[in-house]
Specification:
It is built from 8 helices and 15 strands. It is of the alpha/beta class. The strands form 4 sheets. The protein has a 9-stranded mixed β-sheet with strand order 13-12-11-14-8-1-6-7-15, with helices on both faces. The longest helix is centred in the N-terminal third of the chain and has 17 residues.
């Protein structure tokens, strides 16, 4: 990497729009759902905007990376139209079914190959909340990372990050490059590319990486590389004891308790409502029966 070149990697992820498009039916009395719409994670677009601004001022270049199937190429083309110089899509069917540890292993390998000075991403996903995989990848590489960033400035070989702290406070943090910075959604307004840039991005080249380019074993990816395996689970099957309708001759309070019990009869012999002396005597009888103490008391 040249001394005057700042390489920035921006991780783009896909989310589902929480407000799916819908339209009224012909009679005007119903709503017809047209399905979920997939879009680029807004926090990642904010990170991309911060990377583009920094690259323009510092003379660097931005590489957009997406881990996912072919449809993520649309998000990468948007990044190219916004000003990114390089786009890489990483995918293989063996990536499916993995947990955050397996995903972090892929991101970690991408960072090792590209060797950027800065890794940018959004702190959270719009539809799923926090995504620990990028931070875990940075931690595995012993790279410092800052979360909750709202602004960033470069000073020599360091960056000064303004991050959101507790209760809306702001905190300035310095980190030495290479490092990772994760931005808050809404920290800036991503630029809207012009028509010419959009048209150029349609025919732009997007690199496609698989397992061979990453140099990872399939046993380290997807469900095979997950730390927590997916086990079969079943909900407990309710099997209450049925009881008859409370006797009309019982006091009203006892009849109400029987009705509120849900038809489950309390187990006998588990709870003893006796005095402390009688409870101690019963415990001694149990211990004698189990052979824990001698047969003669005293």
């Amino acid at each position: 990497m040249a001394d005057n070149t700042l390489d920035i990697l921006v991780l783009l992820r896909e989310t589902c729009d929480p407000r799916p498009p819908a339209r009224l039916t012909a009679d005007g009395y119903g709503i017809r759902d047209r399905g979920l719409r997939r879009l680029a994670n807004p926090a990642d677009l904010c990170a991309l905007e911060q990377a583009l601004v920094l690259a323009e001022s510092a003379g660097g270049r931005v590489t957009a990376v997406a881990v996912g199937p072919e449809r993520l190429a649309d998000h990468l083309r948007l990044a190219l139209a916004m000003g990114a110089e390089r786009a890489v899509r990483v995918w293989n069917p063996s990536f499916e079914g993995g947990d955050d540890v397996a995903t972090a292993r892929v991101v970690q390998r991408i960072i090792r190959i590209l060797r950027p000075a800065l890794i940018f991403a959004g702190e959270a996903l719009l539809d799923r909340g926090d995504d620990p995989a990028p931070a875990l990848a940075a931690a595995n590489l012993d790279l410092p990372y800052v979360k909750g960033a709202v602004a960033l400035e470069r000073e020599g070989n360091e960056v000064e990050v303004l991050r959101k702290s507790d209760r809306g406070a702001r905190q300035r943090v310095r980190a030495e490059m290479p490092c990772a910075v994760f931005f808050e959604n809404g920290c800036c307004d991503p630029r809207y590319p012009g028509q010419d840039a959009l048209m150029r991005s349609i025919g732009a080249s997007i690199e496609s990486w698989g397992i061979a380019e990453l140099g990872l074993s399939p046993r380290e990816l997807g469900a095979a590389g997950s730390v927590l395996g997916k086990e079969k689970c079943l909900f407990p099957r309710p099997n209450p004891r049925r009881v008859v309708t409370p006797d009309a001759e019982l006091p009203a309070f006892e009849r109400i308790l029987a009705l509120l019990s849900g038809g489950i009869k309390p187990r006998e012999g588990k709870v003893h409502s006796v005095s402390a002396e009688k409870a101690a005597d019963k415990l001694l009888d149990i211990f004698k029966a189990e052979g824990l103490i001698g047969g003669s008391g005293g």
